[in-house]
Structures are given as structure tokens and as C-alpha cells.
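Q:
My hope is that you can spare some time for a protein that puzzles me. I hope you can help me see how the letters and the C-alpha cells relate. Thank you; the sequence and its C-alpha cells follow:
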Amino acid sequence: MASAKKDVQTTFSWEGKDKTSKVVRGEFRAATETIVRSALRKQGIMVSKVKKQSFKGGGKVTDKDITLFTRQMATMMRSGVPLLSAFEIVAKGASNGAVSKLLIDIKTDIETGSSLNQAFRKYPLYFDALYCNLVEAGEQAGILDSLLDRLATYKEKTQAIIGKIKSALFYPVSVLVVAFVLAAVIMIFVVPAFKQVFANFGADLPGPTLVVMGISDFFVANWYFIFGIIGGSLYAFFYTWKRSLPMQQFMDRLALKLPIFGAVIRKATIARWTRTLSTMFAAGVPLVEALDSVGGASGNYVYREATKQIKAEISVGSSLTVAMQNTNIFPNMVIQMIAIGEESGQLDAMSGKVADFFEAEVDDAVDSLSSLMEPLIMVVLGGVIGGIIVAMYLPIFKLGAVV
């Protein structure tokens, strides 16, 4: 146990003077402060201060953080900032402590001899195969700054598409949740108060009122059971969805068949598929190898399996256009644009234009959905909440006849 603790390295910031009495500063990863001082003395540095670095404001590293990091690195490298200096600048400027720690760890790996793509591959949770393959292609071709710029653009556009889909789905779901909570509050707390008033009413209650009161009695007696079942079911559903491959496959197929939303999800998937193909092919990655990343980046099981089929057909001599046509999941416009790209030798440009088109289609579809959902949601809310209120006030309207 003791030896395991000693092997854990920490980042220390240090300050001192070199052999010419010039003040120098830097960072050093080691197990203890003593090791840092000893290593710096061997380099001829008179150390005046060593401090263990702390990364405050930490959380988890999100895909948005990686996208921002990629854009910052691309900008700095295009401006001529050395790779290690760029890492240090971005790490110190990050507001998320987890991001700072991640970048310092990667910087240390590079300083000890790893290439950039090798350092990234040690953190597959944050840098997927597509990311690492493009960085490797950029390093080998000597165009790392250009490839990072492409990567940043790719991730920004992909995130924008995902954000659009989430916003389209979030609005109606959130309103339905609010409607259910409001209805439950009315049933548990408001309707029982009316029930006491109606107890000595002296007349038969209308049918809608009796139905609402019956539902209210059930809610009051079993509210903990109802919320427990709903909460447990949602937890079990999302838990299974996240960990079960058959469940993910079923949900991916279902998502493409949903009324209204299915068309938007399909367009977003095609946009991601073609955007990834464009980015990989433009980086000089061979088509067969690029398809490995394209299928995974699509984010949908149906298109991932179709991409495997496309790769198998291309491997035995088929063209990309014919292979895509055989899957029967791509619109004719996409196939025709890809065919033009293959014939003209501009597959990256044409697939990029397809991605632009479908991204714009998703934007328009989401805007239309928002406009359509607003009146529809008002009808749902009015029907649920308004129906309960009207049912409870119907006996009061009969009060005059009773009197």
C-alpha cells in the first residue's frame, strides 16, 4: 500500500534561478516535492519555491470542453505557438479543474516522448478513435494545425446538431412532466378540499365531478406507490438503455420511426454521417479505414450496421455510391451527391455539402416543430388542468337549482 502511494505523481509548479541567475519557472510531475527539488538541482537550477498545483472548480470533462480545447489549440498552433506552450496556456485558462488536470497530464506524456495522438489515446473516454486518427494523420502529414481546425469545426457542428435534437425533444417532454405534476398536486391537495364542501351539498354530483373525485381518492391513497412506480420505471428504462445493447438497438430503430420526430432524427444522423466522412476523407484517411469512424459517429445503430455493410462491399471492389444504395436507408439526393463526388474526385467537398444541407434541414425542422408544439402543448395543458377545474366547478353551477 505504501509503495502504491509513492508511485502516484502530482504536478508541482516551481520557481528558481538558473546558472546565469535568470529567474525561471515551470511545472514538474513527481511523487514528492523532494524529488522535484533534487531533479532541478541536477539541472543546475537553484530552487526558491515549489508548490503543489491544485485544480479548483473541477467537475467532469464534457464533450463541450473537448470542443473548446480543440478550437483553442487549432487557433494557437496556426498562430505559431509551440505545442507544449499551447497546452500550458489552455490548461491555465480552463475554468474546469478537471480539464486543467487532463491537459497537464497529456502535456507531461508529450514531454516524456509520446506523440500527441499517443497521448490522446490514453484517454479514450474523452478522445475517441476518430479524434485520435485525425490527429495522427495531421502529425504524419505535418498539417496538425489544419487538422485540429477541421476537428474543431466538426465537433462544433456535431454538437450543434445534437443540441437541436435535444431542444426539440426537451420542450414537449418538460411540459408533459409539468402537466402531470400540476395534475397530481390538484388531485392530492385541491380536490379533497372541494370534496368536503360537496359532502353536504344535498344533490347528486355531475358525472365528470365524480370521476375526478374518484381519481383524487386513488391518488391520495396511493400517491407514494404511483410516484414510486413512475420513478422506478424511468430509472430502470434509462439504466437498461445505457447498458443493454439490444435495448439500444431497439431504441435507435424506434427513434427513426417516430411520427414527426423520426424525420428530424434521421436528417441529423445523415448530417453527422456525411460530416464525419467529409472530415476523415479530407484528412487523407483511406475510405475503408474512414468508414470505421463514420459508422460510430453517426450515433444510430441502423446507420452503424449499414456502414459495416458499405465497408464490406467496398472492400471487394464496389463503389461507395452502389454500396450506399444497397442499404436502402439513404435518400436519393445523398446518393446522387456522393456519386458526383466520386466521379469528380471531390468526395470530401460533396459529402460536406450534403452535411451542410441536412444540418440546415434540421434547423428548419426544429424551428417548425417549436411553432407547431406551442399551440399543441397549450391544448394539452388546457385540456388536463382546465378539465379538472371545470369538473370541480360543475356542482357550483347547479347550486342555484338546489336552492
Q: What stands out?
A: The chain is about 75% helix and 5% strand. The radius of gyration is 30 Å. Residues 13 and 27 are 4 Å apart (CA to CA).
